[in-house]
């Protein structure tokens, strides 16, 4: 039985989703996997910061956030430490980095992850910014310190797209990846197919919580491009950045385009594609008109999907959620279980 002491940096939707999973499933996780998780610290710029070496009851953390909108009143040994102090000075084995995503600088997450790895702590993150911008550098630091960095939730939330690629398909020779990896745009395109105007469909996606804080990131394809960079660097041993992705969003697509495709039996989807070429990996995000028989054509709403084309297996497609509180929170558990399996 291994017990992990966890420090959580950023306690928004995903952090709270993780706490809910731990509150509801700790017993099962202990029984099934022989793994215990103790949340010893939480640091959040809005909700406050607390540290308790014996650990907190995750249900109590959620109750305080729900009822009082703060962690400041949770009984704790230490309060008020900032994120870096929490990372460095708490007795923890795993740092869960969930600060807000910034695809331009990757901060503050890059600094948090570096500090954690340099302190010899595993890092689990669903934060796309630092991984799209610095995956290789961070992985090197992790290796130098004998710890791991789990990034499953950066693409398709807890749907194990990266792990399936890394652990089960890399050996089959991945030559091409094609995916619907932004839920907001797939939701908008689906609603437009149903007859809704673009603006209303976008407002619905925002209300349902799929969209980024600034939805330009979704509709202009930046979010998908960031995820594509992660897929390329993690699964195709590439070393590309956002600048290397040819990108076009969905804002140029008109309702007439969608109707016309529909009449021809086709659908428009925002497709993120990677292809291995003799001179490197080619990365592209753009709307594509797909025939209904295409495996990605029937993926509706905010659902994500990815097709790996491999030398040994041909096409393998995975369909599942790409966002959501519990769905993304689960990615952290999925990574922790993987790290723990390697210890045995
Ligand atoms: N805005 C993202 C999406 C959230 O719509 O897919 C998950 O990364």
Describe this structure in words.
With 344 residues, the protein is an alpha/beta fold. Helix 7 (183-193) packs across helix 8 (198-207). It folds into 2 domains: 2-158 and 325-343, NAD(P)-binding Rossmann-like Domain (Rossmann fold, 3-Layer(aba) Sandwich), CATH 3.40.50.720; 162-321, Dihydrodipicolinate Reductase, domain 2, CATH 3.30.360. It is built from 12 helices and 13 strands. 47% of the residues are buried. The model has no long low-confidence stretch (mean pLDDT 96). The structure holds L-homoserine. Residues 182-184, 210-212, 218, 223, 322-323 line the site of L-homoserine.
Per DSSP, what share of the residues sits in E-state strands of 2 or more residues?
A: 25-35%
Q: Provide the CATH superfamily of the largest domain.
A: NAD(P)-binding Rossmann-like Domain
Ligands, ions, cofactors: L-homoserine
Radius of gyration: 20 Å
Order of strands, main sheet, comes to 4-3-2-1-5-6-7
CATH fold descriptor of the largest domain: Rossmann fold
Largest sheet: 7 strands, mixed
Ends distance: 10 Å
SSE arrangement, N to C: EHEEHEHEHEHEHEHHHHEHEEEEH
Helix content: 40-55%
Report the strand count: 13
Mean pLDDT: 96
Can you tell me the CATH architecture of the largest domain?
3-Layer(aba) Sandwich
Q: Can you tag this structure with a few keywords?
A:
alpha/beta, 25% strand, 41% helix, 344 residues, Rossmann fold, binds L-homoserine, Dihydrodipicolinate Reductase, domain 2, 6-stranded mixed beta sheet, 2 domains, 12 helices
Topology:
Layout: E1 2-9, H1 13-33, E2 35-44, E3 48-56, H2 58-68, E4 78-79, H3 83-89, E5 94-97, H4 109-118, E6 122-125, H5 128-144, E7 149-150, H6 161-169, E8 174-180, H7 183-193, H8 198-207, H9 216-219, H10 222-235, E9 245-247, H11 255-263, E10 266-277, E11 280-291, E12 304-310, E13 314-320, H12 325-343
Parallel strand pairs: 1-2, 1-5, 5-6, 6-7, 9-11
Antiparallel strand pairs: 2-3, 3-4, 8-10, 8-12, 10-11, 12-13
Helix pairs in contact: 1-2, 1-12, 3-4, 4-5, 5-10, 7-8
Bound molecules: L-homoserine.
Residues 182-184, 210-212, 218, 223, 322-323 line the site of L-homoserine.
């Amino acid at each position: 039985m291994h017990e992990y002491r966890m420090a959580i940096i950023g306690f928004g939707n995903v952090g709270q989703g993780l706490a809910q999973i731990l509150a509801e499933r700790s017993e099962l996780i202990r029984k099934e996997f022989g793994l215990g998780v103790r949340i010893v610290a939480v640091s959040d710029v809005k909700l406050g910061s607390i540290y308790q070496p014996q650990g907190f009851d995750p249900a109590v953390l959620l109750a305080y956030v729900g009822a009082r909108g703060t962690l400041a009143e949770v009984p704790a040994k230490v309060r008020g430490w900032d994120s870096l102090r929490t990372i460095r000075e708490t007795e923890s084995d795993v740092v869960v980095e969930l600060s807000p995503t910034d695809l331009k600088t990757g901060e503050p997450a890059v600094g948090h992850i570096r500090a954690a790895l340099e302190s010899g702590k595993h890092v689990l993150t669903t934060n796309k910014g630092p991984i799209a911008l610095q995956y290789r550098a961070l992985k090197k630091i992790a290796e130098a310190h004998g710890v791991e960095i789990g990034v499953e939730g950066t693409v398709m939330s807890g749907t194990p797209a990266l792990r399936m690629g890394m652990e089960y398909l890399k050996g089959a020779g991945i030559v091409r990846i094609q995916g619907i990896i932004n839920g907001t745009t797939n939701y908008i395109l689906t609603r437009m197919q149903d007859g809704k105007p673009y603006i209303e469909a976008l407002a619905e996606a925002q209300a349902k919580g799929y969209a980024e804080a600034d939805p330009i990131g979704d509709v202009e394809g930046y979010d998908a491009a960031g995820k594509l960079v992660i897929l390329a660097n993690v699964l195709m041993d590439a070393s590309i950045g956002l600048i290397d992705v040819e990108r076009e969003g969905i804002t140029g697509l008109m309702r007439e385009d969608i109707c016309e495709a529909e009449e021809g039996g086709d659908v428009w989807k925002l497709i993120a594609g990677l292809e291995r070429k003799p001179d490197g990996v080619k990365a592209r995000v753009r709307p594509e008109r797909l025939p209904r028989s295409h495996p990605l054509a029937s993926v509706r709403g905010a659902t994500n999907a990815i097709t790996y084309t491999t030398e040994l297996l041909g096409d393998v497609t995975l369909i599942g959620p790409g966002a959501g509180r519990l769905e993304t929170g689960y990615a952290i558990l999925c990574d922790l279980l993987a790290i723990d399996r390697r210890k045995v």
